[in-house]
Amino acid sequence: MAAQILDGKSLAALVRAGVKARVERLSQRGIRPGLGVILAGDDPASRVYVRNKQRACEETGVHSKLFGFDASVSETQLLQRLEALNSDPAIHGILVQLPLPRHIDAARVLEAVSPAKDIDGFHAANLGALLAGAPRFVPCTPAGVMRLLEHAGVPLAGRRAVVIGRSNIVGKPLALLLLQKDATVTICHSKSVNLGSITREAEILVAAAGRAKLVTADMVKPGACVIDVGVNRGADGKLAGDVDFDAVKAVAGWITPVPGGVGPMTIAMLLENCLHAAENESAT
Ligand code: GUN
User: Fold this and answer.
1) What is the pLDDT of residues 232-241, one digit of tens each?
2) Do the Cβ atoms of 71 and 101 come closer than 8 Å?
3) Where are the domains of the chain?
4) CATH number of the domain at 140-263, please?
């Protein structure tokens, strides 16, 4: 039987509708959630991501302001902009689009975002809170994956989960979130030996390696839930995930498409985080 398709596009629309209603309620108290976006350099994919995030803000009534910088921007300039955003009462959430130009120390820039406005959840204080089991802002892509799993009713407790990819943005936080739901979690990466023998044990398999068609049908346990976080652009210009979708959907129990799976959920979680930041601020 073919896998059930996990439709991130429609779930994200549902989440955005919820955000919009709550933004309206906040506005009755005179508060409009505000997002400050920093985009440095001219990475075409980053431009598209930022445009999509700003469009989603507009749709839900979140005010967003873009600060664009040339690739030659200095670290000091970025730090100064962050300082201004940290103390701007109209800005509740701050987003530094990655990757930053190579001469910039990205870790130092991310640490300069106020943890209370860090809606990407990349600051060490927020990653630490997640590690300690008391998450504040959870990185958006892992949060989106968890929401998709929850919405589809995929059982996690006691199940084998394998995450391919160990980035601070996706792989590591997602492994922690799955662990929090009592899954038995393994993280694989580029040095893992005999990847297929590990992935075949997975009841939940997440591919976040950034390699097109890395996960083939023979690497998937029949009936498994396969989540594709990959966004790779092929020679034909088309988007492709890390999973060989057509072959794997014949084996898996659930599967996310690319596009239309995890991607829209990332943006929806960003909006929710921004709303939480504004609500927290208004409660203090
Ligand atoms: N670059 C790729 N993914 C992300 C993300 O989720 N947030 C930010 N800020 N940059 C990214």
Assistant:
1) 988 888 899 9
2) yes
3) 30-115, 140-263
4) 3.40.50.720
